[in-house]
C-alpha cells in the first residue's frame, strides 16, 4: 500500500473490499444475532444516479421463464453476467477504465490492475498520452515502455477468448502515431489475431469536460515535454511544479464521422471505440458515433476521471452520468458508462439506464494500491456478487434484461429516458 | 507467414547477391531503364519540369491502410522519411506549374501485405502535378504516360518482353490508348455482386482490386472514392459532399493499381478541417499550411508506382522481382 488517496470517494470502503472481497457486501458477520439493522443513515451525499432506488416488482414473469428453463426455483447464482463489450467477450459487465498519464495511473499500479483485469476476463483500456509522455520502443531503444509492460502483463494472465485491450488516442497521441505504432508491433499480434484489440478515439473525459489532459510535472520534465505539450507555471512562481496541458482536439459531427471511418479503414482488425466527455449534446454525439460504425461509445460522467483537474471543473462542469444516460435513452449500440463506479448498486443503475457495461477507474487504482496482487479481483468479486443479488431481486437473470423501469427517483425525475433535442439546438 | 504467393511465385526473394545476379532481374532492369527513359521523354514533351524530391521532412503524407513513416533524428527534431512527397509537390507549384519527380518512398507497410506481390517497403513513383489542372487533365496525362511508356518499351526491347513470356497482343489496348472509366460505387456494386465483401466506405481492398483487374482486358480508371478513404489533400466534390474528385488507374489482367491521383484541396480552411477529419494535428503541418494560407495553386496530379509499372510490363509475379534491392513488408533485408 502506498500513500494513494482518493478524497471525496469512498476510499475506506473500497480498501475494505480489496482486502475482504465479498464479505464486505454484508454487515460484519460477528455482529450477527447481537445487532439489529435498518437502512444506513449518514452515507455520503449521493449524486443523482445514486439517489435512484432499485425497485423490484412483485410479479416477475421473467423469473417464471427462468423457473421453467431450470425446472426449479431460480437463485441469485443463476444470474448470467457474461457480456459482449465493444466487440469483446467479457466475463462481467465491467471493464478497467483508462488511467491516463498521471503519475498515479501510469506506474506499477496500472500494471497490477491490468494483470488482475486479465485474470477476471474483463477488458482493459489504456489511457491517452502514454507514448508522448513515457515513450515507446523505437529506433533501437530497448527500454520497455509503460504501455508495453501493461499489455504484456495483461496477455500473460488473460484467459482464452475473454477480455481485450483498448488503446486510446488523443491529439498528442496522434502526433506520436500511437495506433500506427501499435498496429504493426509484433507485441500486439496475439491481440489482433484473437480479435482482442480496440482503438478508442478519446474526445474528452469526465473530470474536465472540454479540456485536454492535465498533469503536474517537475521542472526537468516540463522542459522535456514543452515541445509536445503546453506547459504553464501556474502552480508556483518559480516553476518547481508546472502544469502540463494536452489539447482537447476539435470535433464536429463530420470530423467525428470521418475520424471513425478513417480508423476502420486503416486498422480493420481493431475494434473502434469512442470516449466522450459528459457534454450537453451527448445524445447526438453518441448517435453520430454509432451510425459511423463505432463498436462502443464510452460516456464518462462528470463524476469520472482519476485526473488532476481544476477545482471549478470538478465542482461545476459537465453533466452527471445519470443525466447523460437519460439523454441518450435507448442506445443504438454498445454504451459504456464510467464515473464513480465502485459497487454493485451504482453499476446496476447505469446498466438499467442503458449501459452495456461500466468502467472502474479510481476504485480499481485504490484496490490495487491496497493489495497489488488481488485487490482488484476481490473488489470485482464483491461487485459481481451484488450484481447477481440485485438483478435476481428484480426478477431478471441477464444484464441486458435490465430496464429503466427497474429504477425510481424520489425527487420525481422521470425514470424513462428523455430523448429530446439536445440543449445546443444541434439536432441530428 | 504464408509462403505461397497467390500467383505461384516464391513469396520472398533469395539472398541479395543471388538476386542481383539473376538474369530475370537483369531483364527487369533493362525494361525499367527504358520505361524511365520514355516517361521522362513523354513528360518533358508535355511541358513538365523534373525536380528531385526531398527525402526527409517534418511531416510526410499521412498515408492510410496502416502504412507508416520511419522516424529519423534531424538535429534533435523528429523528422520523417518521405512516404510520398505530395505536400512538396503542391508547394512547388508556385514556381513550377507542371512538375514531376521520380521519387523514392519508404512505407512501413503492414506485414499482411508481404504476400500481395504488390507491396515493398522501399519503392519509387513517378509523381506528377499540374497547376490549375482538373481530374480529367491528370487522367489524360496518366493515360498518355502509360500508353507512351508501353509503346516505347515494346519498340525498344520487344525481345526481352517476349522472352519473359509477354504477348504483344495483350498490350494492344494500352498502346492504342483505350481506357475505361467507372466509379467507386460501380466497383463496389460489382464486387458485392461477385460475393466479395467490399467495404463501401473504403479503398477497394487488395483482393477486390485483383478481381476487378482480372475481369478486364484494358486499363480502367476508378473515380470518386468516398471521403475518409484517402488523404486530406484529395478534393471533396463541392457538388457531391462525401465524394472525392480522385481516381485510381487499374491495369488489366490482374496486375492491379498502377496510379493514384486526384484534384487537390487548395483552400486553407478546408485543408485544416480535412486534417482534423483524418485525426491529424494541423500544427505538425505548419510549413505546408503557411504555403496554403499564402495561396497554393489549385491542382491535380498523381503518382504512378514505378515497380508496379515494370511488373505490369514484364508480367513478373511480385514487385520484389523488379526491384534490385527488395524490402518486403515485415521481412528484415539488407
Please supply descriptive tags for the structure shown above.
heterodimer; A: 428 residues; alpha/beta; TIM Barrel; eight-stranded parallel beta sheet; three-stranded antiparallel beta sheet; 36% helix; globular; B: 334 residues; alpha+beta; BirA Bifunctional Protein, domain 2; eight-stranded mixed beta sheet; disordered N terminus; aa-tRNA-synth_II/BPL/LPL (chain B); aa-tRNA-synth_II (chain B)
CATH class of chain B: Alpha Beta
Could you tell me which chain pair has the largest interface and how many residues each side has? A-B, 30 and 26 residues
The helix/strand series of chain B, from N terminus to C terminus, equals HHEEEEHEEHHHEHHEEEHHEH
Per CATH, the superfamily of chain B is Bira Bifunctional Protein, Domain 2
Mean pLDDT of chain A: 87
* Largest sheet entry of chain A: 8 strands, parallel
Structural domain count of chain A:
1
Task: Please summarize what this structure is.
With 428 residues, chain A is α/β, with parallel strands linked by helices. Chain A is 36% helix and 14% strand.
Structural notes for this entry:
The complex is a heterodimer of chains A (about 425) and B (about 325). By secondary structure, chain A is α/β, with parallel strands linked by helices. Chain A has one domain: TIM Barrel, CATH 3.20.20. Chain A is about 35% helix and about 15% strand. Chain A is built from 18 helices and 15 strands. Chain A is globular, with a radius of gyration of 21 Å. Mean pLDDT of chain A is about 85; it is low at about 140-145 and about 415-428. The two termini of chain B are about 20 Å apart. Chain B has one domain: BirA Bifunctional Protein, domain 2. Helices cover about 35% and strands about 20% of the residues of chain B. Mean pLDDT of chain B is about 90; it is low at about 1-5. Chain B is α+β, with helices and mostly antiparallel strands and about 325 residues long. Chain B is globular, with a radius of gyration of 19 Å. Chain B has an 8-stranded mixed β-sheet, sandwiched between helices. A 3-stranded antiparallel β-sheet of chain B has the order 2-4-3, with no helix packed on it. The interface of A and B includes residues 139, 184 and 263 of A. Chain A: InterPro entries: Aldolase_TIM, Glu_synthdom. Chain A: It comes from Streptomyces vietnamensis. Chain A: GO terms for molecular function: glutamate synthase activity. Chain A: This is Glutamate synthase.
Amino acid at each position: 500500500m502506498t500513500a494513494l488517496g482518493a478524497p471525496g470517494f469512498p476510499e475506506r470502503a473500497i480498501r475494505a473490499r480489496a482486502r475482504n472481497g465479498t464479505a464486505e457486501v454484508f454487515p460484519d458477520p460477528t455482529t450477527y444475532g447481537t445487532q439489529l439493522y435498518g437502512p444506513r443513515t449518514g452515507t455520503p451525499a449521493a449524486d443523482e444516479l445514486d439517489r435512484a432506488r432499485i425497485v423490484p416488482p412483485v410479479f416477475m414473469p421473467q423469473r417464471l421463464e427462468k423457473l421453467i428453463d431450470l425446472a426449479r426455483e431460480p437463485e441469485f447464482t443463476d444470474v448470467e453476467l457474461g457480456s459482449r463489450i465493444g466487440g469483446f467477450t467479457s466475463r462481467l459487465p465491467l471493464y478497467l477504465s483508462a488511467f491516463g498519464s498521471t503519475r498515479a495511473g501510469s506506474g506499477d499500479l496500472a500494471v497490477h490492475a491490468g494483470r488482475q483485469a486479465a485474470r477476471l476476463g474483463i477488458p482493459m483500456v489504456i489511457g491517452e498520452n502514454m507514448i508522448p509522455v513515457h515513450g515507446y520502443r523505437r529506433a533501437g531503444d530497448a527500454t520497455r515502455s509503460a504501455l508495453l509492460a501493461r499489455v504484456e502483463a495483461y496477455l500473460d494472465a488473460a484467459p482464452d477468448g475473454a477480455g481485450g485491450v483498448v488503446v486510446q488516442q488523443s491529439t498528442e497521441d496522434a502526433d506520436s502515431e500511437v495506433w500506427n505504432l501499435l498496429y504493426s508491433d509484433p507485441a500486439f499480434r496475439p491481440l489482433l489475431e484473437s480479435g482482442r484489440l480496440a482503438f478508442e478515439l478519446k474526445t474528452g473525459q469526465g473530470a474536465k469536460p472540454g479540456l485536454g489532459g492535465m498533469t503536474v510535472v517537475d521542472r526537468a520534465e516540463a522542459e522535456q515535454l514543452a515541445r509536445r505539450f503546453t506547459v504553464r507555471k501556474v502552480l508556483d512562481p518559480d516553476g518547481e511544479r508546472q502544469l502540463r496541458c494536452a489539447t482537447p482536439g476539435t470535433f464536429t459531427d463530420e470530423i467525428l464521422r470521418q475520424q471513425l471511418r478513417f480508423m476502420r479503414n486503416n486498422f480493420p482488425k481493431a475494434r473502434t471505440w469512442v470516449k466522450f466527455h459528459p457534454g450537453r449534446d451527448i445524445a447526438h454525439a453518441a448517435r453520430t458515433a454509432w451510425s459511423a460504425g463505432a463498436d462502443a461509445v464510452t460516456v464518462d460522467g462528470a463524476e469520472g476521471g482519476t485526473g488532476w483537474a481544476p477545482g471549478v471543473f470538478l465542482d461545476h462542469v459537465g453533466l452527471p452520468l445519470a443525466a447523460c444516460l437519460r439523454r441518450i435513452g435507448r442506445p443504438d449500440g454498445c454504451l459504456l458508462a464510467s464515473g464513480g463506479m465502485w459497487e454493485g448498486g451504482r453499476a446496476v443503475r447505469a446498466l438499467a439506464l442503458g449501459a452495456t457495461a461500466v468502467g472502474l477507474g479510481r476504485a480499481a487504482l485504490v484496490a490495487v494500491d491496497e493489495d497489488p496482487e488481488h485487490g482488484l479481483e476481490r473488489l470485482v468479486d464483491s461487485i459481481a456478487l451484488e450484481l447477481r443479488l440485485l438483478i435476481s431481486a428484480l426478477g431478471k437473470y441477464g444484464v441486458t434484461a435490465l430496464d429503466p423501469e427497474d429504477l425510481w427517483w424520489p425527487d420525481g425525475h422521470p425514470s424513462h429516458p428523455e430523448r429530446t433535442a439536445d440543449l445546443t439546438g444541434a439536432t441530428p | 507467414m504464408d509462403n505461397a504467393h497467390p500467383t505461384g511465385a516464391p513469396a520472398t526473394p533469395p539472398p541479395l547477391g543471388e538476386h542481383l545476379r539473376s538474369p530475370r532481374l537483369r531483364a527487369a532492369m533493362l525494361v525499367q531503364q527504358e520505361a524511365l527513359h520514355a516517361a521522362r521523354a513523354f513528360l518533358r514533351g508535355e511541358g513538365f519540369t523534373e525536380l528531385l524530391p526531398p527525402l526527409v521532412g517534418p511531416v510526410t503524407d499521412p498515408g492510410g491502410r496502416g502504412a507508416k513513416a520511419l522516424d529519423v533524428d534531424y538535429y534533435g527534431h523528429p523528422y520523417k522519411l518521405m512516404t510520398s512527397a505530395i505536400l512538396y509537390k503542391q508547394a512547388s507549384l508556385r514556381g513550377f506549374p507542371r512538375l514531376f519527380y521520380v521519387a523514392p518512398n519508404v512505407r512501413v507497410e503492414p506485414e499482411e501485405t508481404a504476400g500481395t506481390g504488390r507491396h515493398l517497403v522501399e519503392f519509387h513513383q513517378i509523381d506528377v502535378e499540374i497547376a490549375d489542372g482538373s481530374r480529367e487533365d491528370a487522367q489524360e496525362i496518366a493515360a498518355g504516360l502509360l500508353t507512351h511508356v508501353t509503346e516505347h518499351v515494346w519498340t525498344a526491347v520487344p525481345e526481352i518482353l517476349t522472352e519473359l513470356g509477354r504477348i504483344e497482343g495483350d498490350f494492344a489496348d494500352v498502346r492504342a490508348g483505350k481506357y475505361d472509366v467507372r466509379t467507386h460505387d460501380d466497383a463496389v456494386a460489382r464486387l458485392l455482386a461477385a460475393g466479395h465483401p467490399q467495404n463501401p466506405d473504403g479503398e477497394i481492398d487488395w483482393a477486390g482490386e485483383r478481381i476487378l483487374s482480372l475481369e478486364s482486358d484494358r486499363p480502367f480508371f476508378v473515380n470518386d472514392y468516398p471521403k475518409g478513404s484517402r488523404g486530406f489533400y484529395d478534393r471533396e466534390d463541392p457538388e457531391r459532399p462525401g465524394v472525392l474528385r480522385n481516381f485510381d488507374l487499374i491495369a488489366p489482367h490482374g496486375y492491379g493499381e498502377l496510379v493514384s491521383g486526384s484534384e487537390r484541396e487548395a483552400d486553407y480552411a478546408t485543408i485544416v478541417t480535412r486534417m482534423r477529419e483524418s485525426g491529424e494535428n494541423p500544427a505538425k503541418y505548419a510549413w505546408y499550411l503557411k504555403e496554403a494560407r499564402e495561396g497554393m495553386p489549385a491542382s491535380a496530379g498523381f503518382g504512378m508506382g514505378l515497380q508496379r509499372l515494370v511488373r505490369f510490363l514484364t508480367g513478373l509475379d511480385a514487385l520484389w522481382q523488379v526491384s534490385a534491392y527488395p524490402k518486403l513488408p515485415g521481412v528484415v533485408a539488407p
